[in-house]
Specification:
The complex is a heterodimer of chains A (846) and B (232).
Chain A lengths: L2 H4 L3 H12 L5 H4 L1 H26 L1 H5 L3 E5 L5 H11 L3 E16 L4 E10 L10 E3 L3 H7 L2 E5 H6 L7 E4 L2 E11 L7 H4 L2 E5 L15 E8 L5 H12 L4 E5 H43 L2 H10 L3 H38 L13 H27 L4 H4 L11 H22 L2 H32 L6 H8 L8 H32 L7 E6 L4 H10 L4 E15 L2 E2 L11 H5 L2 E5 L7 E6 L12 E6 H6 L7 E6 L2 E13 L10 E3 L10 E6 L4 H14 L4 E4 H40 L1 H13 L4 H38 L8 H19 L3 H6 L2 H6 L1
Parallel strand pairs in A: 3-8, 5-7, 14-19, 16-18
Antiparallel strand pairs in A: 1-9, 1-10, 2-3, 2-6, 2-9, 4-7, 5-8, 6-7, 11-20, 11-21, 12-13, 12-14, 12-17, 12-20, 15-18, 16-19, 17-18
Chain B lengths: L3 E11 L4 E12 L4 E5 L6 H8 L7 E6 L2 E2 L5 H11 E4 L11 H11 L4 H14 L15 H13 L5 E5 L7 H18 L2 E5 L3 H5 L3 E6 L2 E7 L6
Parallel strand pairs in B: 3-8, 3-9, 6-7, 7-8
Antiparallel strand pairs in B: 1-2, 1-4, 4-5, 9-10
Classes of the chains: A alpha+beta (846), B alpha/beta (232).
Chain lengths: 846, 232
């Protein structure tokens, strides 16, 4: 009979049901681990649907208008006229906004802080509201001379409503704390706390040449006006170089894209929890089915075909998958309510969790598929079970390798690849994820195997019986040590990697702002302010570590081809060709720079020849430039013909102005420019005093205190980390459930052993000690494996992602080495009562 | 025609280091309706011979014929179908399916033959009543004594009226009194159903109750004798 006919076999169905009814005790062992994976997927998928729905519903609030023009300079009135012409009478209203970074001085002793200033009119925003405390403060601020200050900054600066903040030369009364800005997440305040002030009366000196001011104009249009068509017309007219146009649709697309990435990331982490759960269930299933081999062989003696026996158990696995899916969906829907809290700081929209049927379907299908695939491996031997097993206890059954095992592994990898590809939308990402997961599991399994091997080899033979017996449990036949170590180790590794990465980041920031290194950068310094500012710094007893002129420019052509005519096929990305470059000129190299190709030319006198410039290594690679290539720069309206004379490696980690392009002296001195000055001051008081003095004399000059970056990076990491921790918790819970499954699955074996030991004279205390020791060792090894892996992953993150030196965080590993064994011992002793209280006689008779 | 014919059967087990001839050129026949005991010391090849006769394993050389058909020519599924139709099996360690009730264990044999569930339930209940377990239909193996478990196993083996029943040490795990009771039941069921019996046993008293005893020694039939007074 062909296999598919067996799927409809009545006996297989009947036996599956009857046998399952008699195996209900295994449900709590086999169901929870995959259920937690399903829960993770349902929670994340439903949350993603919530976010998409919120973006759809709050599209206009995200932009605050129907259309927005944004330029680096004052809004081009011909573009404004184009909008007015296309919109006609349907244009309801406009409002302007200037955004720029500037120093804010909290006059009542709160110090200074670099902030993002938003100067706007009363009409902003057309949609949504500026949420403030008190609620009426938004109107007060934009209509009068009041300012709204990010609530977090307000508390950091020790300021309060009613106190005064100075931006440039103007003073504003703080009329409210800013809680929420339409279309912006709470994390944006970390990069630069926001201060809203009225557009009218803004200090013009702050808008001087060189300041990075963004000019925005918001348009409110009547319903039915095609804002996208207007945006297209503007893009056509400007070729998109200097102007950015946003509509509700493009804003939704942008946010949707960003949040899809977040969702994909969380979904993949959830999928790892499902894989862990599946592995755990598969491992427990192996023990369960070992006990079924004799029954299967008996059935074979009674005349059952191998296919019938196999299919009967497949039906049971499907039923288990359904149970896992139902429980997983229930838990997932509960977790969905918690997820917005974990990632709220990254979201620009308000989330209202709702039941999403497609997400539930994704969870159910993925969970079922995982449950079946992972159970197939232990199920396969049932296909080949010999009836002889029923006659001879010593006969194991099928011999030789089963080629179907490889097929199932291949199917598993294919399923992981398929899921990851669907989630990320990219085959490369799917391959990368599959490779990473497979690699991680292989490494973990190898570590687990090595540690159990070491436990066997290194445990002295003459130690106390309880210790020796407990440790021998790690490598007993049929033990689930490997599965538990892999599951718990992965979860632990995820959490510890997060700690290690954070430690690396903080150590890096401490290093770059450490002893002797510059820690304050003054920028937006005008030509006529350089000498005075340098004098002021020196008057404080400080040194000017570096002073650099900055000239903005764009690439006009590369090797004679206009940048707009260069296609992506050339290997030169559009953004690199069209971006604004901030270059400098000097006749020396900084100590953070090394020439790797060519020679550095410090000065030129003959302006009839192409200017020899030095290009930074990375951007040279991006632009596919080599020594001798020709570039024409548009330096604020003036074309400058250049030749790549040298390629430099730059240590970007140093706190000093670094540049992609360095020109020789003698070329750009007369170009419009601004300057950056770098110095070092020790102690918050000295830094604050210097910043105040500079601001008093030069209100347009902004400064960054590098040490404040540390706090910002830490806060940001903390917020992003909460999402990762939330998902890592699923892995840890899956790992613990695998452990609980392993503990419960081995109960009968433990009881038998305990009885035997007690019959032979072991006390209850000895048996209990050996049990506790075994689980403590399991927890310790899982923490060790996770810790070792986290060091490897932390090193990878540090070197490949942060481009930093890995900072080992031994404290977190030490905590894991204590906490995890405590947890595993607690769970491991679930069997304690049954094992210790089993009457020897009854157990021996059984 | 003989019901079972074992024709020059040799069974060799090969491991990495050596090969072992467990049965060496064994031949005999079994006539319908007879009772036969295979006896011999441990390691003489009794269980191997029983496994070959029941189609649980394949002979290295030689043939096992059932009603003129070579079992070696059947594939695994055909062998399973043959067992479900023609064979009953009783094990030393009872081998009741632990998750099923006594009634369901007995029904299993019938259902494997395609008997509808309702009919299987009725026949199984009757058979269990016949072996004295009318009140134990819904009990699981763990709730039954050794003797009761073996009686369920007998009911399961006889319920479909097989033409031949193989029993591997059917009283090996039972105490004296229970052992005798189970043996009585076995022969009573045989008499009732006319099933041919082939037993492997160490229990000489049990062997003496069969009509023929085959003594195995070192993989060969050392002696084949007819028991003059077979108990029934």
């Amino acid at each position: 009979m062909s296999w598919w006919k067996t799927l409809f076999d009545r006996f297989a169905r009947t036996y599956a049901w009857r046998d399952a009814r008699g195996s209900l005790a295994w449900l709590p062992i086999l169901v929870p681990a995959p259920a937690i994976g399903v829960a993770a997927i349902v929670a994340v998928s439903s949350f993603g649907a919530d976010v998409e729905r919120a973006i759809d519903a709050q599209g206009k609030e995200l932009l605050g208008a129907d259309l927005r023009l944004q330029m680096a300079g004052p809004i081009d009135e011909s573009l404004d006229a184009l909008v007015r012409e296309r919109a006609g009478d349907d244009l309801r209203e406009t409002v302007d906004m200037l955004t720029f970074t500037s120093m804010a001085v909290f006059v009542d002793g709160g110090g200074t802080r670099l902030v993002q200033v938003r100067a706007t009119g009363a009409a902003y925003p057309f949609y949504g509201t500026l949420e403030t405390t008190p609620a009426a403060a938004a109107d007060l601020a934009v209509r009068g001379r009041g300012a709204l200050v990010d609530s977090s900054l307000l508390s950091q600066a020790g300021a309060s409503i009613g106190s005064v903040v100075k931006i440039g030369s103007r003073e504003y009364e703080i009329v409210g704390a800013l809680d929420k800005v339409p279309g912006e997440s709470a994390n944006e305040a970390l990069f630069g706390p926001r201060v809203f002030v009225p557009l009218e009366g803004i200090d013009d000196a702050l808008l001087a040449r060189g300041s990075r001011v963004s000019y925005r104009r918001f348009y409110a249009l009547d319903d039915g006006v095609d804002a996208d068509a207007i945006a297209d017309a503007i893009q056509e007219q400007t070729d998109g170089t200097d102007v950015r146009v946003a509509t509700v649709r493009t804003t939704q697309e942008n946010f949707g894209r960003q949040l899809r990435n977040l969702r994909s990331f969380l979904q993949l982490v959830g999928f790892v929890a499902l894989i862990l759960g599946g592995l755990g269930a598969g491992s427990a299933m192996l023990i369960h089915l070992r006990g079924k081999l004799e029954a299967a062989a008996t059935l074979r003696c009674l005349g059952a075909r191998a296919g019938q026996v196999f299919v009967a158990h497949v039906f049971q696995v499907i039923a288990l998958g359904v149970c896992s899916a139902i429980i997983g969906v229930t838990v997932g829907l509960a977790a969905q309510q918690l997820l917005p809290g974990a990632v709220q700081s990254m979201l620009p929209v308000d989330i209202e969790p709702r039941v999403d049927l497609p997400s539930i379907a994704v969870g159910v299908v993925t969970g079922l598929f995982a449950a079946i695939l992972f159970a197939l491996l232990p199920l396969l031997p049932l296909r080949r079970v010999s009836p002889l097993v029923a006659v001879r206890a010593s006969f194991f059954g099928a011999e030789g390798r089963d080629p179907w095992r490889f097929a199932v592994w291949a199917l598993l990898l294919l399923a992981i690849f398929g899921f990851a590809t669907v989630q990320t939308g990219r085959v490369e990402s799917g391959l990368g994820f599959t490779g990473t997961v497979a690699g991680l599991f292989l490494v973990l399994a190898a570590c687990a195997r090595a540690t159990t091997w070491l436990a066997r080899k290194l445990v002295p033979k003459d130690i106390a019986f309880a210790t020796r017996y407990g440790l021998s449990g790690l490598h007993r036949p049929g033990s689930q040590t490997i599965a538990v170590l892999v599951a718990l180790g992965l979860g632990t590794a995820a959490l510890l990697t997060l700690v290690q990465a954070r430690s690396t980041l903080l150590a890096e920031i401490e290093t770059i702002s450490g002893e002797g290194e510059p820690n304050i950068i003054f920028f937006d310094v005008q030509d006529d302010q350089v000498d005075g500012l340098a004098q002021l710094i020196r008057a404080q007893g400080l040194e000017v570590a570096q002073q650099a002129p900055i000239i903005t420019m764009r690439i006009r052509s590369v090797n004679g081809v206009k940048s707009q005519d260069i296609t992506e096929d050339s290997g030169r990305p559009r953004w690199a060709l069209r971006r604004e470059y901030r270059s400098t000129y000097r006749d020396f190299l900084e100590h953070t720079e090394t020439i790797i190709d060519g020679t550095f030319t410090g000065a030129v006198t003959d302006l009839t020849k192409p200017v020899p410039i030095s290009i930074e290594q990375d951007i040279a690679e991006r632009l596919a430039l080599e020594r001798g290539d020709r570039l024409v720069f548009d330096v604020q309206g003036q074309d400058v013909d250049c030749v790549v004379d040298s390629i430099r490696r730059v240590n970007w980690r140093a706190v000093r102005p670094n540049f992609y392009m360095v020109f020789p002296t003698g070329v750009l001195e007369q170009a419009p420019k601004f300057h950056v000055l770098v110095t070092r001051a020790d102690g918050a008081a000295a830094i604050g005093a210097l910043q105040r003095r500079v601001l008093d004399g030069y209100p347009n000059v902004s400064s960054i205190d590098v040490t404040s970056i540390l706090a910002t990076a830490d806060q940001l990491f903390e917020r992003v980390g909460s999402a990762i921790r939330f998902m890592a918790a699923f892995s840890i819970v899956a790992g613990l459930l695998v452990l609980v499954g392993a503990v419960l699955a081995s109960r009968a074996q433990r009881v038998e052993e305990s009885v035997l030991l007690r019959v032979l004279g072991a006390s209850r205390k000895t048996v209990a000690s050996s049990l506790a020791l075994e689980y403590a060792a399991l927890g310790f090894l899982a923490a060790l494996v996770g810790g070792v892996l986290s060091c490897g992953l932390g090193w990878l993150v540090a070197t490949q992602w942060f481009d930093a030196t890995f900072a080992f965080a031994p404290g977190s590993i030490a905590i894991a080495l204590v906490a995890l064994p405590a947890l595993t011992v607690t769970l491991g002793l679930l069997n304690r009562k049954a094992v210790l209280d089993a009457p020897p006689l009854a157990a021996l008779r059984a | 025609m003989s019901l079972l014919a074992v024709d020059h059967v040799t069974q060799t087990y090969t491991s990495a280091s050596r090969s072992l001839d467990v049965l060496k050129d064994v031949s005999f026949t079994v006539e319908p309706g007879t009772t036969n005991a295979i006896v011999g010391p441990s390691g003489s090849g009794k269980t191997t011979l029983l496994s070959l006769c029941a189609g649980l394993d394949r002979a290295t050389r030689g043939h096992v014929m059932f009603a003129g058909h070579d079992l070696g020519a059947l594939d695994e599924d055909q062998l399973a179908a043959w067992r479900s139709r023609e064979v009953g099996f009783v094990f030393q360690s009872f081998r009741l399916l632990p998750t099923l009730t006594a009634l369901e264990n007995v029904m299993t044999t019938l259902e494997l033959r395609g008997t509808p569930a309702k009919e299987a339930r009725r026949l199984a209940a009757e058979q269990l009543e016949q072996v004295g377990l009318k009140d134990r239909l819904d009990h699981h193996a763990i709730q039954l004594s050794g003797g009761e478990q073996q009686r369920v196993a007998l009911a399961r083996a006889f319920v479909h009226r097989p033409r031949i029943l193989f029993a591997d040490e059917p009283t090996g795990n039972l105490d004296g009194a229970t052992s005798r009771a189970v043996a009585d039941l076995l022969f009573a069921l045989h008499a009732n159903a006319g099933t041919t019996l082939v037993l492997v046993t160490h229990d000489l008293a049990l062997a003496q109750r069969t009509s023929r005893i085959l003594e195995l020694a070192d993989g060969r039939i050392a002696r084949d004798r007819v028991v003059e007074v077979a108990a029934s």
